[in-house]
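To: structure desk
From: M.T.
Subject: fold request, one chain
Message: Could you run this one when you get a chance? Sequence is below, nothing fancy, just the single chain.
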Amino acid sequence: MKLSKRGEYALRSMINLGIAAKVGRSLVRVTELAKAEDLPVKFLEQVVQQLREAGFVESVRGKHGGYRLAKADSQIRIGEIVRLIDGPLAPIGCVSQTAYEPCNCPDEAHCGLRMLMLDVRNAIAAILDRYTLADVVEVTTRKMQRDGIPLPFSAPDTTRTKKIASKGTNAARRLSPTEGVVHQLIGDYAI
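Reply: Done. Structure tokens follow.
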């Protein structure tokens, strides 16, 4: 399974809307979401519209309008968002729970490839369905606060911002395999 750009943008936007809610920001414009993640506005508008139609976000029209989460971030599973945007999690159709398609092998019940891909699908689904948007928002904000990075959509703290600018950030560095959400939730930052 490879997450599409559309799926990536949807998840990044949902995380940012979760952070905005956490810092007390009631509405965020698409242009702000796009700027925060350096995403193309027109494409992001389409993604957010799809999230709205599915009931993950709601919009408020007008001069001071924008988007917000339609339900608590603790009620939104990451797997739901990925399935909405990118479809089934299964790498091949014959192991999909939501979009099963028979394969052309002569004995599906004893197919080694099918058994392997079933394990892949189950592992991916287990992780994406275990974690909620709230879990990812919590880990993200904790790590940003630990590293002295201001949270998006919060009131700027100019002394803190100057300190960060002089130190520089390590935002572009590669993450090690132990820096994922799972590690953050059960490792050093257990909830």
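Reply (cont.): The CA atoms of residues 11 and 81 lie 7 Å apart. Let me know if you need anything else for the meeting.
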